[in-house]
Structures are given as C-alpha cells and as structure tokens.
Specification:
The protein has one domain. Helices cover about 5% and strands about 30% of the residues. The protein is built from one helix and five strands, in the order βββββα. The protein has a three-stranded antiparallel sheet, with no helix packed on it. A two-stranded antiparallel ribbon has the order 1-2. It is elongated and about 40 Å long.
C-alpha cells in the first residue's frame, strides 16, 4: 500500500521494508504550535509502519496555521 501525501509517496518503511502504513494523529498536548503563534496549534499526524511500528513520517495538514496571521498573506 502506497501512502500518497501530495507529491510524495511512502511505499516502504526505511527500517524494515514493510509496505502497510497506519495513519494516526496526536492532538491536545501533542499539538504543534508556531514559534510566533503560540495560541491554538495544529494536530500532528503520523504514518506508522504496521510491521515494525516505526514512525515513517510526521506532518501537519495545514502548515499555514503555524504562521502569524500577517505572515500568512506573504508569498515565498
């Protein structure tokens, strides 16, 4: 099973070679906050190898929420 994250594919665990990933999330006290935007936060998601339990990838679905409101309107 390949896990598609926008343009990135995770098809094998780099630790054991497993091909099945479990999607999980971490919230509440495990939420991620930006350095300038400490209120609120974003849920941290993980792709975990079903075979060995290694966390293959961690990410937030909306990284823009980590920026200050005035910085969200600026382009890279």
């Amino acid at each position: 099973m390949s896990v598609n994250y926008k343009d990135e594919y995770v098809s094998r665990c780099p630790f054991c070679g497993g091909t099945q990933m479990i999607e999980a999330f971490q919230a509440a006290y495990g939420a991620v906050s930006g350095t300038q935007n400490r209120l609120g936060g974003s849920t941290l998601y993980h792709s975990i190898c079903r075979r060995c339990g290694s966390v293959v990838r961690s990410y937030v679905k909306d990284p823009e929420k980590l920026l200050r409101r005035k910085d969200r309107n600026q382009t890279e």
